[in-house]
Amino acid sequence: MASRSTSTRPESQVLAEVLSHMIPAEVLRNLDSAERRGQVVDKRDKEFCSSLSRLKR
Hints:
Layout: H1 11-20, H2 25-36, H3 43-56
Helix pairs in contact: 1-3, 2-3
């Protein structure tokens, strides 16, 4: 099995890609709206949420 290098992409983006297939769409929408309302304060949470948002578009 070939291992793919993820060095060109941020970890949060890769993680978001994987989890976007596992997390229900409703949960993703809730995360997205929480981010827009400014309820997500942790920097990693913000990166993760915006990575998920980009994947949904």
